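[step 3/7] fold_predict: job queued, chain A
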Amino acid sequence: MDEECCEIVVTDADAGRLTALTRTLVEERLVACGQHVAPVRSVFRWDGAVQEETEARVALHTRRSLVDAVVARVGELHDYEVPCVLALPVVGGNPAYLRWIVEETREP
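[step 4/7] structure written:
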């Protein structure tokens, strides 16, 4: 397979809003799927103080060539001033699943 895949992690304080964001990205064929985990506990520094919040997390599966488009679209749809959007390389996996990711996403 010529196209490389990746996983993009996104978090949000509202699990329902994150599900809606995921659905939009799947409908727009920017990602093949999203696997949600909730709740997760996030500890981070914001505005000079350590914060601790409950969030939801989604792992989005897509083509590496669509990362910039996914990051941009999440930026448009997300409520956070600085949303967590991290693209992680996939170094291997079930070849049939990787092909499915490519088949279910659009050309960049």
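[step 5/7] annotate
The radius of gyration is 14 Å.
The beta strands are 5-12, 33-46, 49-63, 85-89.
exit 0
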